[in-house]
Structures are given as structure tokens and as C-alpha cells.
């Protein structure tokens, strides 16, 4: 772990606990900072706060005192989920106090080079795929960030022989100042999290932080098929590596119907790729580009591409049942993700959809509903999604109270050769605490068929 000048005796407020807050507080304490933790959960219910107090860290729980910053804090490290409208965060902005997420700490202490992966969709699949490729290639990767272990906990123990593959949300990137990954990856950019950022411009600017501090010794792998991403990439000082699925590009990585090309030269046949879907081709391209930059052997890249079938809850193949293939895409919490899932299959589809009603339209799914011959709806959006499906010409529509009845009805509505697909196009919180729980319930029901 690198030492960070100026952190000893610095007065730091860690705002919000959960995994990232606990890790940041413990790390700052080890670095000699005077740490105060503030969390909304009452102390008597807050096991994390109790444990931090035993380590000598000051803990304030159950409320966010409006005058807390009067105590002279020089730095705020906040949980990524806490918005900038929070009273203490807004006060810190007004006072000019730096506001970080633990990603900044992770970078500052890391002896290992970091790969930062962001985008509106595809981050987790890309991160996981790249990790497996680098691992197969003997490059000692560690996986961190918005997937798996908190980044500063990973980099605390990383050495120069490792490489840290880090999934990064816009929430995390917004709290960085000097973060400078060796390789930055920007998969795509679509409207999302406007309730947090306030505008598409602010959301886009937060994503740009993945490459903002890079220089010519670093690499930016970016989506050349999206003009908005290209416009931001043009502002980067990194060595630029565009990717495209629309034919050969001589400056980066690209693909046509038959082949993946590196700098315009044939590199790998597409026929070996096990991961289904056009949207996943983009994830493959960026992972392969990063692996090439990291000098990973070609045969190791090919080996992983031929065996990697996806990440749990992300167009995950569950099982084959009576000549039907069942897929779990519970991570599809918006219409964009469901659109990608529908486009991944040429077979007839029985779709399970619905969930938390945020009032968003399902219209962008319409061009991709042609293969959907039956729909099972559930949750707060059940009636709206059923009406939408009916307007698309779907004749078989069923309502489900829970996942087990939903899977049974989907099976009853299906035919041999069909795909039974959970891709809700909605968040899970009306019925399930997380999309992972929703997906696990789907898998459990599917295995009972």
C-alpha cells in the first residue's frame, strides 16, 4: 500500500456506512487520520458503527446534525448512494470541503495499475469477462468496485504484480479528484440516474471522470458508435482506442458478422464467442482490447471467450426444460436493458416482466417485441405492461402474484423451442429487496419445473 502524504492527523468525516463507508473509515484510521463516522441508522441497531467505535473511531449515529461541519473537517468521504442534495454534502460543497468516495482512496494507495470500467450498461459483464481473461493470462487480476469487494480494501493489499479491474458507477466517479486508471473503459451512455444527478449533462460529466485525469501514457477504450461518447472521448488526453460493431476500424477494435479485428487486422473469429447477444459483443470487444493492451496471450483470450456464458442475473442461462431454454435477466431494471435482452434471441420468447412503477414508458421495447408471443406480468407495472404488450400484438398475457406462479404460467404458455426470459424492464423494490433476490427466486422456480 502506498503512503498518502497529508492524511496523518487530517480531520475526516465519513458519511454513511455500508461496506464502502466501513472500509474507508478503517483505512483512514490506519493512515493516521482523525476519523468521525456519521450514519443515519441508530447506534443500538448499527453493528458496523459499534465495531468502529471499539477501534477508537468517533461515531455519530441516528441523525445528520446540521452543524456537524462546524467541527473543522478537512475532507468528507461519502457513501456513493448519498446524493449531493443531502444537507451535510450540500454544506460541504458550499464550504469548499473536498468530497470523495472511497474510489479516490483506493487509487491513491494502490501499488497496482487500475482498470476503470464505466457505462450505463454492460459494466458488470465487461468487468467479469476481463477479470477471467486476465486471470487465465496469468496477470494476477483483482476485481473491485461496484462489483464484489470495496475497492480500497482490494488496493490496500494489492502489489505491483497485480492489476485491479474496477467497475465504477457515476456515483463513485463523481467523488474523485486525482483518480487516473491505466486503462479506462466507457461502454456506452444512456439516460439514467437523472433523479440523482439532476440532468443528463451532469450524469455524463460524472462518467467522464473515468478518463478526466488520464494522459498519453494511459488508454481510453470507448464506444465509437455513440456520438455523445465520442464527443467526451475527444476531450481525453489518453491514447484512444475506439470500439465499434459496425465494421472494421483501423484505430481500435471492431467487428463484422464473422470476425473481431484489432487495428483493422483479423484477430478472433466471432463463432467461438459463447456469450449471447449483440449487446454482449460490445462487452467482448472492450474486454479483448484491454486484454491486448495488457499483453495477454491470444490463446488465453480465445479460451475464455469460448467458455464464458455470462454473469448471474444478466441474460444468464438457467436450464433447458422440455426443449425450452430459460434465461434470467433480473438485472434488466430498465427498458434499455430489456431491449438488449430481447434483441439477443431469434427464437420465440415468453417474457416475464414488470416491477416497481417509476412511470417510465415501455415504448422503446416496441421494435423488439416481434418475437414475444406471450407475456407474464407482475408487480406495480403489471397492468401497464400488459396493456403495452397487447398493443404490440401479444395475444397471450397472464398475471402472476409471485415468481413461482409466474414461472409456471410462462411454462404453460410456452412451446418447444421457445426462450422463457425474465427481463422485467423495472426495478424490483415493489416485491423484492434487490434484483438479485428476484433473480434467485426465478432460478429457484425454474429448477422446480
From TrEMBL:
Residues 117-291 form the Mur ligase central domain. GO terms for biological process: cell division; cell wall organization; peptidoglycan biosynthetic process; regulation of cell shape. Pathway: Cell wall biogenesis; peptidoglycan biosynthesis. Keywords: ATP-binding, Cell cycle, Cell division, Cell shape, Cell wall biogenesis/degradation, Cytoplasm, Ligase, Nucleotide-binding, Peptidoglycan synthesis. Pfam families: Mur_ligase_C, Mur_ligase_M, MurD-like_N. GO terms for cellular component: cytoplasm. ATP binds at residues 119-125. The keyword tRNA processing does not apply. It is found in: Cytoplasm. GO terms for molecular function: ATP binding; UDP-N-acetylmuramoylalanine-D-glutamate ligase activity. Its EC number is 6.3.2.9. The keyword Membrane does not apply. Gene3D superfamilies: Mur ligase, C-terminal domain (3.90.190.20), Mur-like, catalytic domain (3.40.1190.10), NAD(P)-binding Rossmann-like Domain (3.40.50.720). Residues 313-426 form the Mur ligase C-terminal domain. It comes from the Bacteria. It catalyses: UDP-N-acetyl-alpha-D-muramoyl-L-alanine + D-glutamate + ATP = UDP-N-acetyl-alpha-D-muramoyl-L-alanyl-D-glutamate + ADP + phosphate + H(+). Cell wall formation. Catalyzes the addition of glutamate to the nucleotide precursor UDP-N-acetylmuramoyl-L-alanine (UMA). Belongs to the MurCDEF family. This is UDP-N-acetylmuramoylalanine--D-glutamate ligase. It comes from Viridibacillus arvi. The lineage of its organism: Bacteria, Bacillati, Bacillota, Bacilli, Bacillales.
